[in-house]
Design brief:
This protein is α/β, with parallel strands linked by helices and 323 residues long. It has helices spanning 7-13, 17-28, 77-89, 96-103, 107-121, 153-160, 192-202, 244-259, 269-281, 292-301, 310-313; strands spanning 44-47, 52-55, 61-62, 136-145, 168-176, 181-187, 208-212, 226-230. The chain binds zinc ion.
Length: 323
């Protein structure tokens, strides 16, 4: 079957519930045959009228949504899919107000939907960046927040009343220059031990690490990395020695945060960072001409096995990744 290429085509295509189930089925179960999310059984029958399967072993029913970020949501699958299409393909982020208007759902539902999509886009990759042969990686941190206009009313009020300090949050970013992939992490502070631990976790020893002159990076050589330091006072870039790639990513990230998102609260920051990193890492390049449909399918492939409850989303409980 021809797949949709544009947003208009996607809206038309996924208006058919059977197409929605087919695409989710394809992404969740590689051989296309559903596996019972309750007990793992492969035998089942399809209840066409209810658009659900019935497990031949535990006799429980399940849908394409069960066990995914769509579960327990009253929003229909076609709206979810278009929501994913919008998030995967917008340039600088999309607000819950825009999603609500585009999909004809409430802003509250749209907010919930957006956060679940962002959760699915989180990069869970365990692959190391760089390479033992001196693979180049740019590392940099940035600070987000502190501007009351980016905060929720209640948070703003608490800051005004002096109950909370005005928080500035540190985000660490690493860009592998060869694969052109970026990875982000919200970190508690920019002390040496924190920065070093993140680098050791994510970058292969023997890689060339490009950073600014911050003292937090001064022991990279001792840890087995080649280390090149950028001095921003210099008016010119010393050949390869720069962090322009990751700085470019920060500016995209900040443009998204300031221009589109109405309220960014501290415990959601990593989700916005994940969302921006997903688009950056899956942008079209000469060697890798990804289309809107490809990005949509990549986003969709990450739904399986990820589930986030409202309590987890609002910061009351830790995240769980099991189903
Ligand atoms: Zn079962």
């Amino acid at each position: 079957m021809e797949h949709p290429k544009t947003l208009t085509e996607a809206i038309r295509f996924y208006a058919d519930a059977a197409n929605c189930v087919a695409v989710v089925k394809e992404m969740r179960w590689p051989d296309g045959e559903p596996i019972c999310p309750h007990c793992g059984e492969r035998r089942h029958c399809w209840l066409a009228k209810q658009m659900r399967w019935k497990c031949a072993s535990c006799r429980k029913q399940f849908t394409a949504k069960t066990g995914t970020v769509f579960e327990d949501s009253p929003i229909s699958l076609d709206k979810w899919l278009i929501g994913i299409w919008l998030v995967a393909n917008c340039k600088n982020g999309i607000s819950s107000y825009e999603i609500a208007r585009d999909l004809g759902i409430t802003q509250k539902s749209a907010w919930f939907m957006l956060h679940r999509i962002r959760y699915a886009l989180a990069n869970g990759s365990l692959e190391m960046l760089g390479g033992s042969e001196g693979g180049p990686v740019e590392v940099d941190e940035t600070f987000i927040g502190g501007k009351p206009k980016n905060m929720h009313m209640k948070a703003r009020l608490k800051i005004k009343q002096g109950i909370h300090a005005n928080p500035k949050m540190a985000v660490m970013g690493m860009l592998d220059r060869e694969s052109r992939k970026v990875r982000t992490k919200v970190i508690p502070n920019v002390r040496r031990d924190v920065l070093q631990a993140e680098i050791l976790n994510a970058i292969e020893t023997g890689s060339t690490v490009y950073t600014d002159g911050a003292t937090g990076y001064d022991r990279l050589l001792l840890n087995g990395y080649l280390h090149q330091t950028v001095t921003h006072i210099q008016e010119y870039v010393r050949g390869e020695v720069h962090t322009n790639g990751i700085e470019n990513f920060w500016s995209l990230f900040k443009r998204g945060l300031n221009g589109t998102y109405v309220a960014v609260e501290p415990f959601h920051l990593h989700r916005y960072a994940d969302e921006q990193a997903f688009r950056y890492n899956n942008r079209a390049t000469k060697d890798n001409p990804l289309t809107d449909y490809d990005r949509f399918m990549l986003a969709l492939s990450q739904i399986s096995g990820k589930r986030l409850t409202y309590a987890e989303l609002t910061g009351k409980v830790g995240e769980t990744e099991s189903w």
